[in-house]
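Appendix C reproduces, verbatim, an entry submitted by the partner laboratory led by Prof. M.T., so that reviewers can inspect both the input and the predicted structure.
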Amino acid sequence: MILARPIPPSDWMTGVLASCQTVDFHLPARQEETACWRWITPAFLREPLLVPDLLAPFEARFGEGTDRRAIAARWSHLYGCITLPSLLTALALCDWQGDLRLAAPVLRLALAEDASPQRLLFLSAAASPRRSLAERWQELMVDHFAPLHQGLAAWSGVSPRVLWGNVAALVCWSLDELHRQHKRRVAAAVDAARAVMLASPTLYDGSANPVHGCLRPRPDGSQQRKVCCLSYLLPDETLCPSCPLPPPRL
């Protein structure tokens, strides 16, 4: 079931999701927010020779000697935070048909002075040929997040399993929040999205769904990661609430 709504999907992004409206769907980004931002083509992030310079300011935030794998994992989490809630809302509830490839010529990414991701911008309203949710989910995973993860892994040595765990956790959270905010109005659409994005072991073409199985349910209904997100390796941080590692002994 697709619930028709205009793009951007701001009508659906209420409550805590209101602060996650960080994708501009063929709209100019608000100028007052962009004075100190650097706009780049996101495809640069798949290039091992470009990533070190692009993310050097972000790495510097954490101080010399910090494990680069944890830095890459944190950057990927922030990227997912600014992209996935809006994109999933657009895909699941608005039947949005835009170009989701990381190398899409219409795509721009705003980086703050410290190279943290701030906003994703689609320069054009041009739509791809109409495709099913499963086809669009495959494009987002295979042609957007997979090359991004390859670039981050080549730079830092982080396991892609860590990065896919970040995606899975944010997909689960975003869909849960959509359901929490709108209940029956979106239940069928959110259930369909969960089936495609999280529950299915395969993508549209039969290849492995990289986020399937990244989370496992706990008895209290919360989700636990199967692979640690490495946040405890960052200065002044501990294990996250969904960590699979045992708590440290006091």
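The chain has five helices and six strands. Additional entries are available on request from the coordinating office.
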